[in-house]
UniProtKB/TrEMBL annotation:
Belongs to the LysR transcriptional regulatory family. PANTHER family: HTH-TYPE TRANSCRIPTIONAL ACTIVATOR TTDR-RELATED (PTHR30537:SF5), HTH-TYPE TRANSCRIPTIONAL REGULATOR (PTHR30537). It comes from Thiopseudomonas alkaliphila. Keywords: DNA-binding, Transcription, Transcription regulation. GO terms for molecular function: DNA-binding transcription factor activity; sequence-specific DNA binding. It comes from the Bacteria. GO terms for biological process: DNA-templated transcription. Signal peptide: none annotated. SUPFAM superfamilies: Periplasmic binding protein-like II, Winged helix' DNA-binding domain. InterPro entries: LysR-type_TF_proteobact-type, LysR_HTH_N, LysR_subst-bd, WH-like_DNA-bd_sf, WH_DNA-bd_sf. This is LysR family transcriptional regulator. Residues 3-60 form the HTH lysR-type domain.
Length: 298
């Protein structure tokens, strides 16, 4: 099988060293094999690159014209190989990361200065959206999402931190409308809903065995909007800990205890294209976020 790249390497080294044997030695080939690669290259091009005799090797005019291009191509390949190899030893380059809007603003953006100090050669491009994304089609290096991820043959996932769910409401809402005692009671309350999941169905229990049909006068595609409305006394929300923990801590929201437990603790996951060699920039970001988020969300 014709190997043009090896033929070009033999040609360039033979021109530089003045002999095919010297080129063969540099490439750890036998002189016969090196000569065969050079002959195949000449046959492919349809020209003679060298005048060869038992005593002398001299480059032809086509060879003189061809040499600079070959040297440039081989140098570019060498540089590309060096650059990719370096990226496996030093985190560098642009890291495109897609994350949920509220989570990205509350938790990831504040961590970016520390990450930048630790890995100054990595430039982060942060995409903020709650919408489902196609990681590969969008050319994202990695994404972060809350909750379990569907199995995909092209993606891998790693859990960064746990994330508890809460059913909660403002004291003013409960004072006016009463406090639900059971999951079934939620059907009689104003439940503020997240439009990017199944907005009218809230599941409870360790195996999601209890589902209640809920309704309300506000649906939004962003969790912070629902939290703000709930704090204002508009209704009940069912949201992850990172959205409501501050409001629960200072009493603006109150946790509700029902007859069925909330869904088991969800996870915050990083996901990324499945590949044999995970780029170092992705690996260090995942390790960094795992350490930082487990402390922040403890």
């Amino acid at each position: 099988m014709f190997d043009q790249l090896t033929g070009m390497r033999v040609f360039v080294l033979a021109a530089q060293q003045g002999s095919i044997s010297a080129a063969a030695e540099r490439l750890e080939l036998s002189p016969t094999m090196a000569g065969r690669h050079l002959t195949q290259l000449e046959e492919y091009l349809g020209v003679k690159l060298f005048h060869r005799s038992t005593r002398r090797l001299s480059i032809t005019e086509p060879g003189i014209n061809y040499l600079p291009a070959c040297e440039r191509i081989l140098a570019d390949i060498s540089e590309a190989n060096r650059m990719v190899s370096a990226q496996q030893h030093q985190a560098q380059g642009i890291l495109r990361m897609n994350v949920p809007l509220s989570f990205g603003i509350k938790y990831l953006a504040p961590l970016m200065p520390l990450f930048s100090q630790t890995y100054p050669q990595v430039q982060v491009e942060l995409g903020l959206t709650d919408q489902a994304i196609d990681l590969l089609a969008g050319h994202w290096d990695m994404g972060i999402r809350v909750g379990s991820l569907a199995n995909s043959p092209s993606l891998q996932a790693r859990k960064l931190a746990d994330c508890q769910l809460h059913v909660c409401a403002a004291p003013a809402y409960l004072a006016q409308h009463g406090t639900p005692q059971t999951v079934a009671d939620l059907a009689q309350h104003n439940c503020l809903q997240y439009s990017l999941s199944e907005p009218n169905r809230w599941a409870f229990g360790t195996h999601q065995q209890t589902v209640v049909e809920v309704s309300g006068n506000l649906t939004a595609n962003n969790g912070d909007a629902l939290v703000i409305a709930a704090i204002g006394g508009q209704g009940i929300i069912y949201k992850p800990d990172f959205l409501v923990r501050d409001a629960l801590a200072d009493g603006r929201l109150v946790n509700l205890t029902l007859d069925q437990p909330v869904l088991p603790q969800e996870g915050i996951y990083a996901f990324y294209p499945k590949q044999r060699y995970l780029p170092l920039k992705v690996r260090v970001m995942i390790d960094f976020l795992t350490e930082q988020l487990q402390q922040a969300l403890a």
